[in-house]
Design goal:
The complex is a heterodimer of chains A (482) and B (213).
Chain A: H1 22-30, E1 31-34, E2 39-43, E3 46-50, H2 54-63, E4 74-77, H3 97-111, E5 114-116, H4 126-132, E6 141-144, E7 158-161, H5 164-173, E8 175-179, E9 182-189, H6 198-209, E10 217-222, H7 224-227, H8 231-239, E11 248-250, H9 255-262, H10 270-281, E12 293-298, E13 305-307, E14 315-317, H11 331-344, E15 359-362, H12 370-380, E16 390-393, H13 398-406, H14 409-416, E17 418-420, E18 440-443, E19 458-461, H15 464-473
Parallel strand pairs in A: 3-4, 3-6, 4-5, 6-7, 9-10, 9-12, 10-11, 15-16, 15-18, 16-17, 18-19
Antiparallel strand pairs in A: 1-2, 2-8, 13-14
Helix pairs in contact in A: 2-3, 2-5, 6-8, 12-14, 12-15
Chain B: E1 9-17, H1 24-27, H2 47-50, E2 77-82, H3 94-102, E3 106-109, H4 114-122, E4 126-129, H5 132-144, E5 151-154, E6 159-161, E7 167-169, H6 174-182, H7 186-191, H8 194-207
Parallel strand pairs in B: 1-2, 2-3, 3-4
Antiparallel strand pairs in B: 1-5, 5-6, 6-7
Chain lengths: 482, 213
């Protein structure tokens, strides 16, 4: 943000002997110059774009007569507006959706960047495909004009969401001017109960500390319960770091991370792989490293939960009741609760598991990887959704969809009464086409904001397992209660 | 990349929108983003709250007379007094483009969503963090007579002036203030560091060759 000429300083990453946090290691690996204050010029290893905001960044760059500095390290996918109904084409249900798709395709071709077009086997949600193809690897810096780019922090990458103007800057210069975040560590101690998933962990964390608790911080998730999570669970955890206001989330790479990365198309091979893996194993907070803030979550206190309001921090256990606004000490939170309950059509004291739903959505960059689909399908085997429920399953990528079909999961979803879709963001938000307008939805997504899934849509955020169980009973339900 | 310069001094009608966690989906719903363009989004700002119906009708959209920015006294509002975590959620810069197109020049809130905060500075909107109690005091005063009780924001002095003679200082990072006041092309500024960037890249190629496809 500083426009005085940056003064290159001696590089710090190899010199320091002080114990360092994962954030410091990742930041120092990419710092080109100190711009004064907390501002730095940071090298960006990978840029991802999508047709909604990427199209504008590419067009604006062209209008300025500029070109991407390193187009071969820039990737673009179609995920936000693209139709997810079977047999899709460029025609999207979103108003002017086709304009976004075609503009993106043309700009991507002119710019010479990689494009995962609608019919490309690698197409899918940017954060899903960036990981599963090895485009973003541990230790890399990556940005995308999409707030959920923090998902990729689960690889031990420094990945964060930006606006379109910053995307233009990253495209033109391979750098960003960024303010160095503070370091926060969340230690998940103890063990989670059966039926508690990564989604319940992150929702519990946001509810415990609030949806702005991470402001200005990169949040490292640590502790035995995080180590025990699958990579898919870790992506879910980091995905919602932005819902607590964090700059990004991150998890130190371990052997599970390295195994995951080895199976990706763009992972280094041979002697280079050995070198890379040795480097990745160093990317962890040293013993004695000092964080600006450390918080602890006792996993024994986490239960399957859903949101009852219009912000992710408005959360209740499924075995609990909808709270009364006057139980919040903070008058602003009390007011927000009362407005949220009004929008959600809920009364204080209502048992959460008595709330009847109209629809169930299993999808989004939060929860539509193969592990999420397996968890839901495992529950849905030999079950049917309630007759009044409309249910959709939207895989995160073409690769996730093919894997699910190879395992026969699509048949389980269809037999249960779910629609089986093509990959994309779909009804995570209402782009003007398909809508949950006016309906009450149990949703594996990340945002329960007013109108997010359609005008008047009432969204209850939950894990894939809770979405499956609730779809079957027709009321909000934890899996073990059915 | 270059936004028009922000005025050092701004005086205007301020509207309180004090609920916390007003997200960018509320500032501009996804369905309102219908063109590959940064222009003309003012009509879409707060569309879910501002109009009685979400859908266009033959008569156009009917404003909800209850929504604060539709009230007579708040016509011409250029400053928002907002709640905690304003602009959280989606990174969509359309939220800032819509506010700017509507005529919003400054937003005062206890805190902002991080991406939104950066997007404001890059588009010439002054986003200022102020204590919640101060926001409340300003809101109470403004509400007494919105068209007479104007707020004055002075970026150079880093002061908000309100009720006769009352002044409230605010902090703003020098780099952010410079960006607002000078409206510089930050791409051009970074490209002038090409030597440093190239040197970094050459060293990093040796250090992390697997990154360099």
């Amino acid at each position: 943000m500083n426009h005085a000429g940056p003064k290159p300083r001696p590089r710090r990453f190899e010199a320091t002997k002080m114990p360092a946090t994962l954030l410091e290691k990742l930041w120092n690996l990419h710092q080109i110059a100190d711009l004064g204050g907390r501002d730095c010029l940071i090298h960006i290893d990978r840029i991802f774009l999508h047709e909604r905001t990427g199209s504008i960044a590419l067009r604006s760059l062209e209008q300025e007569g500029r070109k991407p500095r390193a187009p071969h390290r820039v990737f673009c996918t179609m995920d936000h507006i693209v139709d997810t109904r079977p047999g899709r084409s460029d025609i999207s249900l979103a108003p002017h959706g086709r304009e976004f798709i075609e503009a993106t395709r043309q700009s991507a071709r002119r710019a010479g960047i990689h494009l995962f077009d609608i019919d490309d086997p690698r197409q899918g949600i940017s954060h899903v495909v960036a990981a599963e193809n090895g485009i973003v690897l541990p230790g890399m810096s990556a940005v995308c004009p999409d707030s959920h780019t923090c998902t990729l922090g689960a690889l031990g990458a420094l990945a964060w969401g930006i606006g379109s103007t910053e995307a233009e800057h990253a495209l033109a210069t391979s750098c960003l001017r960024a303010s160095r975040p503070r370091a926060m560590r969340i230690n998940f101690v103890g063990e989670t109960a059966p039926g508690v998933t990564a989604k319940d962990m992150i929702l519990h964390l946001i509810a415990s500390f609030g949806s702005r608790a991470g402001r200005g911080h990169a949040v490292e998730f640590a502790g035995p319960a995080v180590s025990a999570l699958s990579m898919d669970g870790r992506f879910t955890l980091c995905n919602m770091a932005v819902e607590m206001g964090a700059f990004t989330g991150m998890i130190a790479p371990d052997e599970r991370t390295i195994d995951y990365v080895r199976n990706t198309a763009l992972a280094p091979r041979g002697p280079l792989a050995e070198r890379a893996e040795a480097h990745w194993r160093q990317l962890r907070s040293d013993a004695g490293a000092i964080f600006d803030l450390e918080l602890e979550i006792d996993c024994a206190r986490i239960a399957p939960a859903v949101t009852w309001g219009t912000n992710p921090e408005q959360l209740a256990s499924i075995s609990d009741t909808v709270p009364a606004p006057d139980t919040f000490e903070d008058p602003q939170k009390s007011l927000a609760a009362s407005q949220a309950l009004d929008y959600m059509g809920l009364k204080p004291g209502t048992p959460v598991n008595s709330i009847k739903i109209d629809a169930a959505f299993l999808g989004s960059c939060t929860n539509n990887r193969i592990g999420d689909l397996r968890a839901a399908a495992n529950y849905l085997r030999n079950r049917k959704i309630a007759p009044w429920v409309r249910a959709l399953c939207v895989p995160g990528s073409g690769a996730v969809k093919r894997q699910a079909e190879a395992e026969g999961l699509h048949e389980i979803f269809r037999n249960a009464g779910f629609e089986w879709r093509e990959a994309g963001c779909s009804l995570c938000f209402h782009a003007g086409g398909e809508s949950f307008g006016g309906k009450r939805v149990i949703s594996s997504t990340n945002r329960n904001f007013q109108g997010r899934q359609g005008p008047g849509a009432r969204t209850h955020l939950a894990s894939p397992l809770t979405v499956a169980a609730s779809a079957c009973r027709g009321y909000i339900s934890a899996a073990e209660a059915s | 990349m270059r936004h028009s310069q922000t005025q050092v001094f701004h005086r205007g009608i301020a509207a309180p929108l004090l609920r916390p966690n007003i997200d960018t989906d509320a500032i501009i719903p996804s369905r309102e983003i219908a063109r590959v363009s940064k222009e003309g989004l003012g009509e879409a700002m707060f569309a879910g709250w501002r109009y009685l119906s979400a859908q266009d009708s033959a008569r156009g959209r009917e404003p909800d007379p209850e929504f604060i920015l539709n009230r007579e006294a708040y016509q011409g509002t250029s400053i928002l007094l907002a709640g905690d975590n304003f602009g959280c959620g989606s990174s969509r810069e359309h939220a800032v483009w819509a506010l700017k197109d509507f005529g919003i020049r400054a937003i005062l809130a206890p805190s902002f969503g991080g991406i939104f905060f950066n997007n404001c500075a890059l588009n010439g909107i002054v986003a200022i963090e102020l204590e919640e109690a101060m926001i409340q005091r300003l809101a109470e005063w403004v509400q007494l007579d919105p068209r007479a009780n104007l707020l004055e924001i002075d970026l150079a002095a880093q002061q908000i002036r309100w009720r006769k003679g009352e002044k409230t200082g605010f902090a703003i990072e020098p780099a952010r203030r410079g960006l607002l006041l000078e409206g510089l092309d930050s791409i051009a500024a970074t490209l002038r560091q090409e030597d440093a960037i190239a040197a970094f890249e050459a060293a990093d190629r040796q250090r992390r060759p697997w990154v360099w496809m």
